[in-house]
Amino acid sequence: MIKPETKKKIIEKFKLHEKDTGSAAVQVALFSEQIKNLTQHLKEHPKDNSSRRGLLKIVSKRQRLLNYIQTTNPKFYSSLLKKLGLRK
Predict the structure, then answer these.
(1) Residue 83 to residues 40, 59, 68, 87: CA-CA distances in angstroms?
(2) Over the range 2-39, which residues count as b (16 or more CB within 10 Å of their CB) and which as e?
(3) pTM for this one?
(4) 19-48 pLDDT, tens digit each
(5) What is the pLDDT of residues 3-13, one digit of tens each?
């Protein structure tokens, strides 16, 4: 779960225009934050398989969105990966 303050900061950082709250870039950034939080949770609770399943779903959603961004706008894709600190 992402705190509302953190969520607002992420949206402000990755939005494409003034009223943007759900573009692919914003969604990828929010998914990345959720993945980071769930990964930390699973380090502390290694037997929590329902959270592990949720993590895998979120990773899959993020990957699909990244594939979409890569096909539609390759320059933006590479800059987004750098901003998020993802490797590809």
Answers:
(1) 21, 18, 17, 11
(2) eeeeebeebbeebbeeeeeeebbbbbbbbbbbbbeebe
(3) 0.92
(4) 998 999 999 999 999 999 999 999 999 999
(5) 999 999 999 99
